[in-house]
Amino acid sequence: MTERRDFLKSLAGAGIGAAVHTGGMAQSSVKRRNIKLGFDNFSIRAFGWKAPQLLDYAASQKVDTVLFSDLGVYDQLTDSYLREVKAKADHLGIEIQVGTGSICPTSNAYNQKVLGPADDHLALTIKVAKALGSRVARCYLGRADDRKSAGGIEARMADTAKVCQAVRSRAIDSGVKIAIENHAGDMQAWELVTLIEMAGKDFVGATLDSGNATWTLEDPLQNLEVLGPYAVTTGLRDSMIWETPDGASVAWTAIGDGLTDWNAYFDRFAKLCPGVPVQLEIISGAIRPYPYMKSDFWSPYPKAKAWEFAKFIQLAKRGRVIAPPSFMAGPTGAERVAAEQQFQRTELEKSLRYCREVLGLGVKS
How many domains does the chain have? Predict the structure, then answer.
């Protein structure tokens, strides 16, 4: 551990860094990319909208796709209801992608009392995906605390792989690929690749999440290099990172408000992820500390790679402190809900505009 601390101190003394990337808003011309653009309904979760309302909103934003990342957006899961949802999406010219939450039965993120056996829940998600014409069933293992569970993240990866294998034939017969996300600090990119290979890459792929990369001490561009070849869908947002006395803090932001060089990102994305849509999952506001200068921080990361972590430190050296939105410190109740709704909608729509006007994303646009 002493060697790791010496390594961190040496980087801190080296002054690695550059000016904050501003996203190129002053570009006189925009490189058009033939990449579908949409959003994850979690971006505007405060509204509590169901699938039909979400589709109307998606149409108003002229997006190509929408990811319904939880089964709670459907009033029912009957065949007739799902046909109605699909017909509405087809009429509006919007591609639906289907998702759910955790599928790891030994993660604290999975509620077996509510959802039943994990393989049955994943099978249900695949059924819904097939009914709505989705080629993916987005899901995830769990969250950062799973790294501290008995057996560590590797044990949870093995449990998740078994769940996937239990529904292999259903997924293949349905033409649906299980799309596991690097989620909420659970797995680094190389760990998710290990899980996909363990389960079977013929029917399991990745949901590529740039924001969650920073929650596992990764540079989003490095995360893309590792996960890109396995990606079948996405959940993208920007991140601001800055140094603190104990390490660094991470805040998720709208696209263009953070440190990611998105033009470089999508140049590589186009090559590594052909045909994969860009789904924005904007979750601005929360700030998470990473006290990596403390020795006990590293026990859940026994196989972390120093050279990859160095890229994260470089980002932190380029960043600046940002404050959480003012409503988060305000009173609860109807005013708080209204402020949160407005904030989420503003952050998403700002990100969609940036993707179109600066990055040249979107087919309809």
Answer: 1
Q: What pTM, to 2 d.p., does this model score?
A: 0.91
Per DSSP, the three-state class of 140 is strand
pLDDT digits (tens, 9 = 90+) for 293-306: 998 999 999 999 99
* 288 is a domain residue: yes
Supply 318's token pair. Answer: 């380029």
The dihedral formed by the CA atoms of 177, 72, 143 and 255, expressed in degrees to the nearest 10: 80
Question: Residue 192 falls within a domain, yes or no?
Answer: yes
Task: Say if 365 falls within a structural domain.
Answer: no
pLDDT digits (tens, 9 = 90+) for 151-198: 999 999 999 999 999 999 999 999 999 999 999 999 999 999 999 999
Residue 19 burial by CB count (10 A; 0-12/13-18/19+): exposed, middle or buried? exposed
Task: Please say whether the beta carbons of 285 and 328 come within 8 A.
Answer: yes
The distance between the two most distant Cα atoms of the chain, rounded to a whole number of Å, is: 63
In-domain check, residue 331: yes
Residue 54's SS3 state is: helix
CA dist 133 and 129 (Å) reads 6
Going from the C-alpha of 205 to that of each of 43, 137, 139, 283, 333, the distances in angstroms are 22, 10, 10, 23, 40
The CATH number of residue 313's host domain is: 3.20.20.150
pLDDT tens profile 58-108 = 999 999 999 999 999 999 999 999 999 999 999 999 999 999 999 999 999
- β-strand 65-68 against 287-290: which pairing, if any? unpaired
**Domain assignment of residue 318, given as a range:** 2-357
**Closest by CA position to 244, among listed 297, 284, 281, 285:** 297
